Amino acid sequence: MTSALRSDVPVRFSSAKDRLRSSRTKQRDREIFEEMAVTSMLQPGRSSTSTSSSFEPLVRQNTYGSHDGARSLRQSKRASMTALLVSMNAKDRDLEISDDLARAQRVLRELKSKISVQSKKNFVLEKDVRYLDSRIALLIQNRMALEEQNEVASHLDDAAELQEGEFPNDEKTQRYGNLLFLLQSEPRHIAHLCRLVTMAEIDSLLQTVMFTIYGNQYESREEHLLLTMFQSVLTHQFETTPEYSSLLRQNTPVSRMMTTYTRRGPGQSYLKDVLAARINDLIEHDDMDLEINPLKVYENMVNEIAESSGVLPPDMEQAVTAEFAAEHPKVQAIIEPRLAILTDLAEGFLDEIIMAVEEAPYGIRWICKQIRSLSRRKYPDAQDHTICTLIGGFFFLRFINPAIVTPKSYMLIERVPEDKPKRTLTYVAKMLQNLANKPSYAKEPYMAKLQPFIQRNKDRCNKFMLDLCEVPDFYESLEMDSYVALSKRDIELNISLNEVYATHALLEKHKLELARDPTCHLATLLRELGVAPAQLPRKDNRAIVLPLFSRWETSFDDLTQQLDITQEEVLFLEAKATFVQIIRSLPSNAGALRRPLRLDRIAEAAGTLRNDPIMVRKGIRCVELLSTLSDMCVVERSDDYAVLREEIEQELAHLGSLKDKVLEETEKLEDVYKTIRDHNAYHCI
Fold it and tell me: Is the link from the previous residue into 596 a cis peptide, with omega within 30 of 0?
């Protein structure tokens, strides 16, 4: 942090008692802080000339002392301060930390970025496949005009990777950067737009929204903004849908949005972990026939008898009604054991899903929570089991069941299943859906024989769906992220020219609804941009990197006031972050790192290190911070700065325990990345 920055911090004091929160809120703040602090401290920067670090993680231990009052003061805005410091110091990431954890974090960060890119590519490829399927069907029927045939040929010829490019002038880049930042940081505009577009327009818009504007699928700010958009869309859906039974059921832009969201990286990873093994085991049994539709069972039985003997018995007719087939003793004898096997299979799938409740992606669980909340708000007398039918309509109907029915398209298996296991998977999905919803057997009365499965598992399925909703909200951290983003200079968007132009065109088409106030920011930007450019031919389309920033920036002084950050808090966190950087960059056998830590010795060791001006500057800064914090009575020299030392020890312990989790997550995501990449390569053949 520069001296100029420090001088801008408003001096505002508040007592620890005034700033105390409940213990639950403090713990959540600490967890958020730890995650963000780790991320911020691991960012690579200019290489230090000190020896490569051999920092050894510490064993986590309880180091809380008698300084709880002072600590609670600093914990209250921990996440906000961390992100703010990272933002302000974006150009000052100068100590290259290269311990095992830092290297593992870099690998994981790069892997998540690759998954985000491949997820978007997968969505685009599947959209193209759907388009080509519909066009080819018309071509076969000789119902396609010549220009439409040329368009299909263009799709086939231009499916290659986009080349990199840029806008023709800086003014255009800046204006579109302003517009896309506004759309990203104020999700209400996109939420409103999604309600206005047609079904023909929704796929292209969702591609841009889900995989570009909010395309960094593992970055908390973008994920939380996207979920905020979902909240707005769902709220409107509940307010405008007159009948409870039709909520979230119809094929609308909203339902398409929800399905598309589940296809992002975290959802794909969850499906692979929970479903892939059981589906692969099932499809290995190519000859296992579990058909329970009496009419089909009867037809198969008649065909087998006719093939083997050449003639049917007198009591068997070739064509019968469904009712006759259901009453036939031999048909009933065939179906009875199949019902038991199907029940066992479905319960096996259900067991896997219920046991993995904590593994479900946060965003999907949060959407379930909003469905529950909106249901209770609109229908206060609704019972939990009724609300669970809506939750199940999203979680099972839009997320789980499509993956069970078409596992190849969800990259859970390597080959399309044979007809018999494919039919079995369809039955399993129907059973789970009937379990999640109020079952109706009007169209398939034979499914009623599986009612014992519903009765036996209904309560635990409802409990599971309510458990899905038990996740914390993110509003505090999102507010902080949004403030910080206003001052950042390094937010970029990987986007194509056609995505920019298509989004501009939709905004322009609906601007009277979206920007009724001519003085609002969106109206101002659209007015300056003018008419949206036409879509480019695919061969002329380019992938660009668009810098995002707000024309209506917030100063650092305003940020500290909005986030309620005092000067003591900012300086304390700066000291903590800098000491952790120094400790992780020093050789593990350095005398200054003997336990118990002596912060003054660590600062002196760094400040007097030869041939390393970066470390020297950090050490000198730590000496200044210890002196300033002592003068402010935040820490005390007499106890060797115990409050600060304890929190540094805790952070080092947390970093040490984090490495195994990072490696475990990386191993899982490497498998997901390989699966998506191979699937995309198959589509491109």
Answer: yes
414-431 per-position pLDDT tens digit: 888 999 999 999 999 999
Share of the chain above pLDDT 90, in %: 30
d(CA 574, CA 584) in angstroms, rounded, equals 16
- Can you give the pTM of this predicted structure? 0.70
Residues β-bridged to residue 163: 542
Question: Could you give the CA distance from residue 536 to residue 497 in angstroms, rounded to a whole number?
Answer: 8
List C-alpha distances in Å: 486 to 184, 185, 490, 552: 12, 9, 11, 8
Separation between Cα atoms, residue 593 and residue 116, nearest integer Å? 40
Dihedrals phi, psi of 531, to nearest 5 degrees: -70, 140
Which phi and psi angles does 212 have, rounded to 5°?
-130, -65
Report how far Cα 258 is from the mean position of its chain's Cα atoms.
Answer: 13
Give me Rg for the CA atoms of the chain: 30
More confident residue, 685 or 344: 344
Return d(Cα 443, Cα 446) in angstroms, integer.
9
For residue 306, which amino acid is it?
A
What lies within 8 Å, CB to CB, of 574 at 6+ separation is 1, 85, 625
Strand 491-496 vs strand 542-548: parallel, antiparallel, or unpaired?
antiparallel
* Per-residue pLDDT, 284: 92
pLDDT at position 232 over 80 = yes
The sign of the dihedral angle between the CA atoms of 199, 205, 209, 215 is positive
Number of C-alpha atoms within 13 angstroms, CB side, residue 451? 9
